[in-house]
Specification:
The chain is of the alpha+beta class. The chain is 54% helix and 21% strand. It has helices spanning 3-23, 59-79, 95-115, and strands spanning 32-40, 46-54, 87-92. The protein has a 3-stranded mixed sheet. Strand 1 (32-40) and strand 2 form a beta hairpin.
């Protein structure tokens, strides 16, 4: 499959899955769930979906996705007009949390330099 077509499929799944999360599921209030990236395999058998959760990916959110993955897959299957529909694999994007930790360390070092 061409890289252009694969990029189109990635964008399509990202849009449709985002819509499913927003409109059709009752996520726990107080959490912001964002799809950061979708990587579909070349044979379209799997779609790795990277999710960023604010304030953080807690056990509650992870349990939600583990418990509802079949329902999410079925919703995606109904909305997409393609065959085969890739199997969903959820990953948690922790890059924002790591960036915040690095920022905190840098600020601590900066404050220590000012105080010495």
């Amino acid at each position: 499959m061409s890289s252009y077509r694969l990029a189109q499929v990635n964008n399509l799944i990202k849009e449709v899955f985002s819509e499913i999360l927003k409109k059709e599921l009752n996520l726990t209030p107080g959490f912001l769930v964002t799809i950061t990236k979708v990587n579909v395999s070349k044979d379209l058998s799997q779609a790795q979906i990277f999710i960023s959760v604010y304030p953080s990916a807690t056990k509650e959110i992870k349990n939600f996705f583990e418990k509802n993955i079949y329902q999410l897959q079925q919703m995606l299957n109904k909305k997409l007009k393609m065959h085969p529909v890739p199997k969903l694999i959820i990953h948690y994007d922790l890059s924002e949390e790591k960036a915040a930790e690095i920022e905190e360390v840098l600020n601590k070092i900066k404050n220590e330099e000012k105080n010495s």
